[in-house]
Specification:
By secondary structure, the protein is an alpha/beta fold. The chain is built from 13 helices and 13 strands. Strands 2-8-7-6-5-3-4 form a seven-stranded mixed beta sheet, with helices on both faces. A four-stranded antiparallel beta sheet has the order 9-10-13-12, with helices on one face. Helix 2 runs antiparallel to helix 10, helix 4 runs parallel beside helix 5 and helix 11 runs parallel beside helix 13.
């Protein structure tokens, strides 16, 4: 079967954060929400479920648990157990829940920046201490962002209890090397840290030479201190259905996580469960074709960035998100605002990720639409523009 990633789709007919935050003349390349129709297998499963007409409280099925176990083995060589899974309505709630469950007041939550903005709000919202440390910036244009292990270890205090990690990384697109992950795990063991590993983009590896290795799969000891967050939301473009899973091998951590959720988080809704089952069971061919389109779009983006003086980008190894350094582009203190005002293209502001002067660009959109947005950006960023 061939899938369609090119046909124009009017998303303004239904309210959405992406398309209705800005005026109608703005092309939105900001929030991590793709403009592709979800896999037809997912759509068909939802249509069948909706046709039943009864939408009472759902129940997580053994079939879904087993399907995720099979996905983990098939794609990552990690054998997980059904009872390790705690299904929840989203990764962001899980980050906050982990802080409540595993950090006492007076203890600290550590995060490495730049990072997906909700990470930066977890400590404050949960009444815990916030600790931040910068990743190491690229050593040359196009070189990767790196884990600065020395800076990370130097920032750990006696209060540090929980490390929020992102793998693959949002916004830089890094797929962390196995030696980096081993070093991170050893650091966690030395300082008795728990790790929440947000692996939301793990199914979207763009670089064929790279592979995703779940952090918890590196060793049994590391698995006992790691909460892995997975979801079909980004991979299959079903974020609005609010379905995710915390994989927690350690029974005590799993118990505490469940208890912290009681009364605060609802169960995953019935359509989210239906879509998750269809996506993991039948959506892999669609996912593989999606990666072809994303790589085509990434090449278009690289071609344009090469013409923009003062702008650099390390091509993401995963995700459909690009992290652009615009500190030397002459756009003032807020490149995001300058480009929005002058080109009517909406990007994500790097300041929200802890790095002013950067922007994040979402290229998970039909190629014709991406090209239109890039041509608008050319008008401001190219020397002849």
């Amino acid at each position: 079967m061939s899938y369609d990633f090119a046909t124009p789709l009017d998303r303004r007919q239904y309210p959405s954060q992406k398309w209705q935050r800005y005026a109608e003349d703005v092309l939105p390349l900001w929030v991590a929400d793709m403009d592709f129709v979800s896999p037809p297998e997912v759509v068909s499963a939802l249509e069948e479920r909706v046709s039943h007409g009864v939408f009472g409280y759902g129940r997580l099925t053994d079939t879904l648990r087993e399907t995720l176990c099979a996905w983990s083995v098939d794609h990552y060589g990690w054998s997980i157990e059904p009872d390790w899974q705690v299904w929840i309505p989203g990764v962001v709630p899980a980050l906050h829940l982990a802080a409540q469950a595993f950090c006492s007041p007076g203890q600290a939550v550590m995060t490495a920046t730049p990072i997906y903005p909700p990470f930066l709000r977890v400590a404050e919202r949960s009444g815990r201490i916030a600790e931040r440390v910068m990743l190491a910036e690229p050593e040359a244009p196009g070189a990767p962002w790196r884990l600065d292990l020395e800076a990370l270890e130097a920032s750990i205090t006696p209060q540090t209890r929980l490390l929020l990690w992102c793998h693959p990384h949002n916004p830089t697109g890094r797929v962390w090397d196995e030696h980096e992950l081993h070093a991170l795990g050893e650091l966690a063991e030395r300082h008795d840290l728990l790790i929440v590993s947000d692996e939301l983009h793990c199914d979207l590896i763009l670089d064929a030479t790279r592979r995703h290795r779940p952090l918890a799969s590196l060793s049994p000891a590391l698995a006992q201190r790691t909460i892995t967050l997975w979801a079909p939301s980004k991979t299959f473009n079903i974020a609005g259905l609010s379905s995710a899973c915390a994989v927690i091998p350690d029974p005590e951590l799993r118990r505490r996580f469940r208890e912290a959720a009681e009364g605060l988080l609802p169960e995953v809704n019935i359509l989210g469960l239906t879509a998750s089952q269809a996506a993991y069971a039948q959506g892999d061919a669609w996912r593989r074709e999606l990666l072809v389109t994303l790589n085509t779009n990434l090449q278009r983006l690289r071609d344009h960035v090469a013409r923009w003086p003062g702008v650099t980008m390390t091509a993401p190894e995963a995700t459909y998100l690009a992290w652009l350094d615009m500190r030397e582009a002459g756009l003032g203190d807020s490149p995001q605002r300058a480009l929005l005002d002058s080109t009517r293209v909406a990007l994500s502001d790097g300041a929200d990720f802890g790095c002013p002067g950067f922007v994040r660009l979402n290229f998970g959109t039909p190629t014709y639409l991406l090209e239109e947005a890039l041509e608008r950006l050319d008008s401001r960023l190219c020397p002849a523009g």
